[in-house]
Amino acid sequence: MVDPGDSWGRRVILGISGAVRHLLPWDLVIAPQDDQWRLRVPPGWHGDGIIAAIRDDKTADHVRALQLPTVHVSLCEKSADSQFRVITDDRKRAELAFRHFQERGFTGYAYYGPQSQRYPVRRGEIFRDVVREAGHSCEIFEMSPVVGRNSDLVQKQTREWLKGAPKPLAILAADPHPALQLMEICQSLGIHVPEEVAILAGDSDDVLCEISDPPMSSILLASEQIGAESVQMLRSLIEGNLPPEPTRLIPPIGVIGRRSTDILAVSDPMFVKAVRYIRETAHTGIQVSDVLRVVPISRRSLEQRFQQLLHCSPADEIRNVRLSRVKQLLISTEQTIEQIADCSGFSSASQLSFAFRRATNQTPAEFRRQNSRRREI
User: Fold this and answer.
1) Residues 6+ apart with CB under 8 A from 192
2) In terms of C-beta density within 10 A (0-12 exposed, 13-18 middle, 19 or more buried), how is residue 256 classed?
3) Residue of 226, 200, 228, 229 lying closest to 215 (CA atoms)
4) CA 247, 122, 187: angle at the middle one, nearest 5?
5) What range defines the domain where residue 285 resides?
6) 172/179 Cα distance (integer angstroms)
7) Confidence label for 265 from pLDDT (cuts 50, 70 and 90)
8) What's the number of domains the chain is made of?
9) For residue 350, is pLDDT > 90?
10) C-alpha angle 243-221-167 in degrees, rounded to nearest 5
């Protein structure tokens, strides 16, 4: 019972089918929708277990009434009473979003997630907690009680909120749908994205992220891993064994950077020039000495500026940019580790593997197997 109507649902289903194909003699059925677009078990189906992404109370009641072993893959409050879940780690998602914005020099943060069945209210609260722990403030867009899901009133309140918000502002949107809505409202108000407002979607949708203007940065979730691990948990339940942990939290893979956050909200031109040079050329094998040839300041001054604004050294930033490129290539291409090392700035596959394992506690091959995206999605 997972909706295949968006990229997240399709990837979860791919993870489920891949795990079943290689491990179990199961027959899979994707639940159809009723006349109100709610997922329902088809009449006459006599299954042994359910993997469900629940988004409304009636569907929760429908699944509960079946009295079958069930694993939930949804973060929504409707499934909060479920005993067994495999879900994205929302704390890790929030930390990833904050680091992405922090690396771009932002000090003003906000969260945008109008009322929806697709995501929980708690997602914004977690992001606010992460931002506050780092010593910054974070505003959460809150609608008046009378608004509900009235799209016209949501737009009106969003316009008022954006006009009064201090800028530059970094906004984490709950998922690509409100992120796209936010960008369209910014455009109508003459607010420039990302120069005045940078927008990051808390999930990825291949179509929405590419058709938005500008293209939308997003967090890539380990959706296929969620699907695969939900199969393992359901198998244990069907066999009468309790899983060692009732809730399995899966960290997101990383940020897919696009134009909507491609900005440095910093007034230090030397620092901006250094960071842009690193992000544009780290894959060519540059060293800190190359950065200093582009930015005519002392190494000590460069180190101090990076520590003050990015909380890392120039060498750390070079390595981070390279590893981010490696992750995207591992996920989206079939290139060998040697080929990826060559086009990511590493001198060899062994150097790449050492740096990658040190940063992620995984080998590149393990990361690829766990997170590889299907081209047909």
Assistant:
1) 186
2) buried
3) 200
4) 130
5) 269-371
6) 8
7) confident
8) 3
9) yes
10) 135
